From TrEMBL:
This is Acyl-CoA synthetase. The gene is fadD11. Residues 13-414 form the AMP-dependent synthetase/ligase domain. It holds the Pfam family AMP-binding_C_3. The lineage of its organism: Bacteria, Bacillati, Actinomycetota, Actinomycetes, Mycobacteriales. It comes from Nocardia rhizosphaerae. The keyword Ligase applies. It comes from the Bacteria.
Amino acid sequence: MRIPVVDTLPAAFQRTAAIAPGAVALRTPGDGVTLTWGDYANRVRAVAAGLAGLGVRRGDTVALMMSNRVEFYPLEVGAQHLGATAFSVYNTLAPAQLAHVLGNAGARVAICEPKYAAALAAAGTGLEHIVCVDEAPEGALSVSDLLAAASDDFDFETTWRSVRPDDVATLIYTSGTTGAPKGVETTHAALLFQVAGIAEVLGIEFGDTITSFMPTAHIADRLTALYVQEVLGTQVTCVGDATQIAAALVDLRPTVWGAVPRVWEKLAAAIEFRVAGEPDETRRTAMRWALSVAAARSEFLLAGEPVPAEVAAEWTRADELVLSGIRAALGLDRVRWALSGAAPIPPRTLGFFAGLGVPIAEIWGMSELACICSVSHPRDAKLGTVGKLLPGMESRRGEDGELHVRGPLVMKGYRGMPDRTAEAVDADGWLHTGDIVDIDTEGYLTVVDRKKEMIINAAGKNISPTNVENAIKAATPLIGAIAVIGDGRPYNTALIVLDAESVEPYARTHGLPDASPAALAIDPTVVSAIEAGVAQGNTALSRVEQVKRFRILPTFWEAGSDEVTLTLKLKRRIIAEKYAAEIAELYAPAIEPSAPSAG
């Protein structure tokens, strides 16, 4: 679609809000809360006036700390209209992390839910005002107080028109697999280039529907549910509890949708569990047949080969009888295309949904590139690749295979860290991404792994742990996380953590009385199932990549824990240190097993 020429987010929002003022822009599941574009625009004007009355000016920083809710949007967009840098804080940050982020950002005002007010006040970073949605505790302002601070002579039009394309629109704090999070400065110009690029490739229309359920501090949610909305006019359904996303999908039936790989894996696992647990034998047989047909179709799609006519015909019949009903039950029957990003998605998962009739485009990007740098429309995609670079971006590969990228998406820098910025972006403007990639003759990118995470085993072989982990995770829904060990070792081993959402139905189906991770980690039935999954995953790997021994840990790894970042990336160094004893046992005695075994 053709994107209107605007140079800032406020200019984009003002244009979009005027298209259909009576249309619903924001809602919650079941329409418990709705906000039209006209009311949205009025609230943005009021918030901007109120923040100006509190002393917020162009270039100041405003922090937001809340769940996914309708009230977030006018507050964020109102700050943008002052030329302020508005950014979100992860709600689960520890006190020291919260203090670091607020201090580095130089936040003057924080807007939050009441339960976070005390933590913000205790951060000791010199916040001038804390504004609370809902009821404000003592010492904080309410949103009504904020709005009442507006001056009668505030010039809204002149103020938002004074915002410049190179002003910093937001800060995205990296998830911090090593060291303290860095604040990525992203300008209005970069975000507008980003939205225009993905709209050109994917096609997004006014009124398209999508959800906001990932943390608003994550660039993926900010892009797809905030910036895309401001520029293109999508309708966003706010899901305050991410565990309720399955029900929200059925309520909304989105036209475009995206999620991180783990969510796609959980949806696939839910379908498989549902089929296995179907009490009616006739229905269960029909569902298994349809999924087998879908799997046959996906094999050709994954291989990049034409689907034979007889397979296509059988899939059409399976779709009419069963698969369309499964899509409807998921709430994905209206989806034109879907996205997966933030981490590599197992090819089996891509193939599962392709066979089901849900086209997923895998994307690649990073916070330092405003989110998405490469993507292809599903009709043009090669499954297993992350598409092609957005128009207007350049790429090259370093001698070690690292991808370097240059163009309008590259960040302005890391806030307050000029030395770290210079390490990431060279003098010629090339961002050194840290990702090892392959690029085929048609320009499709395949991500191998993070440069710093590549394993070099005792024989000097280079191995991608992510590739190994994805192959094994795809073999069984019981695995929630897996960390492959093997650097400098004679063979690969793995620490495996069970999936918190899959174990309960598994335990119930198999008559296991205790679904705690400690009990399941040593249960012979579970150990046998994981052993079979590892063996199956190993069949997709070369001998040197295969996992020879593993340990099931008696715990779950939650987002933001010692082992996993808020964006579900493994903290490999911390894992290696914390589980040093378990890892040592996996290599004692140092005799390579002939088949995968539990350590």
